[in-house]
């Protein structure tokens, strides 16, 4: 699939790190490094603008290495970029560690996955079809 992109960052376009990668790494575009204190959150610019076709979204997700090694994650994970959004892609990062973390200009801070989605049409009803699970919610299917 071809996607229009405007790159106002000093970096090359996002690319897949391996042949079978699902996500493209996004880099931080910062004048100065950003300090994230424990439990602090900040919006980080990428310098990228995209035009997705109808029926697709861009999902902004954490990078597993940053989450594991530094406790940095994407707060609204996955963040959704709708097909009609034309603004700059930004990443909402949060520091879940107990130490301050510095994000530097050019750091890979998130990954973007392009996903197809469907639109629904509501069908109002008085009742839903019965199932074995019924209203069983959190933990209702057991641990093992």
Offer a quick outline of the entry.
This protein is mainly beta.
Structural class: mainly beta
> How many distinct beta strands?
11
Helix content: under 10%
Oligomerization category of the chains in this entry: single chain
The largest sheet is: 4 strands, antiparallel
In DSSP terms (H or I, runs of 4 or more residues), the helix count works out at 1
* Order of helix and strand elements from N to C terminus: EEEEEEHEEEEE
Q: Characterize the overall form.
A: globular
Give unreliable regions as ranges.
none
- Strand portion: 25-35%
Cα end-to-end separation: 41 Å
Q: Largest beta sheet: what is the strand line-up?
A: 2-11-6-8
Mean pLDDT: 95
Compute the CA-based radius of gyration.
19 Å
Cofactor: Mg(2+)
Pathway: Pyrimidine metabolism; dUMP biosynthesis; dUMP from dCTP (dUTP route): step 2/2
Catalytic activity: dUTP + H2O = dUMP + diphosphate + H(+)
Function: This enzyme is involved in nucleotide metabolism: it produces dUMP, the immediate precursor of thymidine nucleotides and it decreases the intracellular concentration of dUTP so that uracil cannot be incorporated into DNA.
């Amino acid at each position: 699939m071809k996607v229009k992109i405007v790159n106002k960052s000093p970096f090359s376009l996002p690319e897949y790190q391996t042949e079978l990668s699902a996500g493209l790494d996004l880099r931080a575009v910062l004048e100065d490094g950003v300090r994230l204190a424990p439990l602090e959150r900040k919006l980080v610019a990428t310098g990228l603008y995209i035009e997705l076709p109808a029926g697709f979204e861009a999902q902004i997700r954490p990078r597993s290495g940053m989450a594991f090694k530094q406790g940095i994650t994407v707060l609204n994970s996955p963040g959704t970029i709708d097909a009609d959004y034309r603004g700059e892609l930004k990443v909402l990062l949060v520091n879940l560690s107990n130490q301050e973390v510095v994000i530097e200009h050019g750091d890979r801070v998130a990954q973007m996955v392009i996903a197809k989605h469907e639109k629904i049409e509501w069908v109002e009803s008085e009742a839903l079809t019965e199932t074995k699970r019924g209203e069983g919610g959190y933990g209702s299917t057991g641990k093992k």
